[in-house]
Description:
Elements: H1 2-22, H2 31-35, H3 39-45, E1 51-52, E2 58-59, H4 68-80, H5 86-93, H6 97-110
Antiparallel strand pairs: 1-2
Amino acid sequence: xxxxxxxxxxxxxxxxxxxxxxxxxxxxxxxxxxxxxxxxxxxxxxxxxxxxxxxxxxxxxxxxxxxxxxxxxxxxxxxxxxxxxxxxxxxxxxxxxxxxxxxxxxxxxxxxxxxxxx
Length: 118
């Protein structure tokens, strides 16, 4: 039940973000500039199987290949307080809309890696 609810929320956020981007609500990201801004992200999102221990044990999602509109929507939700992970809220609070778009473009361009891809 929880996984289904989480998936539905993620899908709704992605659709809402995609609609906002299509209406000109989100700036187009620059993947090259995003690559220069990933230091805070890579410490958790760049490690296979990484889990945090604060405030609770939490498996950190891989974001490479994720749809850019979803990444922007998630970061804005952390910044706005709709998502509550304390580390992500602190990081997102420091990002501008341009930073978010650039990071999303960078991670969106990486593509999804599975066990069959190298």
